[in-house]
Design brief:
By secondary structure, the protein is an alpha+beta fold. The protein contains five helices and eight strands. Helix 2 packs parallel to helix 5.
Length: 198
């Protein structure tokens, strides 16, 4: 009998295959066009699910008014894709637009965060399953409330931050995406439905 390997595989992962790798040859014009299309996608999704949006004003947030829509895309294999679409208008006039896609097969979670920065859409990929494992390794049960255990956990978090910076410098993460990827993201959202938060 062959044992299953630990490779992450689900229908959700297959749907997000377009989010693999980056194109370092995007022109400035392509980046700006992708940002415009992404902004349109966020706004049209907010309009489409306006009745399900949660809006937070200055009674909750100090410096902005923000709307968030939680969505989900069920998969045939029982896995699912969770989506969070956010739009904020800051008091200083800045706009923030983001879409977070979370792939999950019940055991592992991987996120893809899309957001506009400097007139381009950046994507940040993160494996949420790996981070808790790393932190559990840094913080053994017997030292969970000791100073040494806390120091090890802080060191692990600092290391993760440095790794993120290095990935960005090497072009492996937090990189611009083009119009084609935004179009595929829009196709994915076509099958989304509101997620009820209890």
């Amino acid at each position: 009998m062959e044992l299953p390997n630990n490779t992450y595989s689900s229908e959700a992962a297959k749907q997000m295959e377009f989010a693999e790798g980056f194109n370092p040859e995007l022109t400035t014009e392509e980046k700006i066009r992708a940002a415009v299309e992404f902004d349109d996608l966020v706004q049209s999704t907010l309009l489409r699910f306006a009745g399900d949006a949660k809006t937070y004003d200055h009674t909750v947030l100090e410096d902005r008014v923000e709307s968030i829509i939680p969505l989900e895309i069920p998969q045939e294999d029982g896995s699912y894709v969770l989506v969070s679409v956010e739009s904020a208008l800051l008091d200083n006039g800045d706009k923030k637009r983001s879409i977070r896609i979370t792939e999950s097969d019940g055991r592992d979670k991987e996120t893809h965060d899309y957001y506009i920065e400097d007139d381009q859409v950046l994507r940040y990929d993160n494996n949420l399953a790996e981070r808790p494992r790393e932190l559990r390794g840094a913080l053994c049960p017997e030292e969970s409330i000791s100073i040494e255990g806390i120091k090890r956990m802080i060191d692990e978090c600092k290391n993760e931050i440095e790794n993120d910076k290095l990935e960005q410098q090497m072009g492996l993460n937090r990189q611009p995406v083009g119009v084609e990827e935004i179009s595929k993201l829009a196709e994915l959202l076509e099958s989304a439905k509101p997620r009820k938060l209890y």
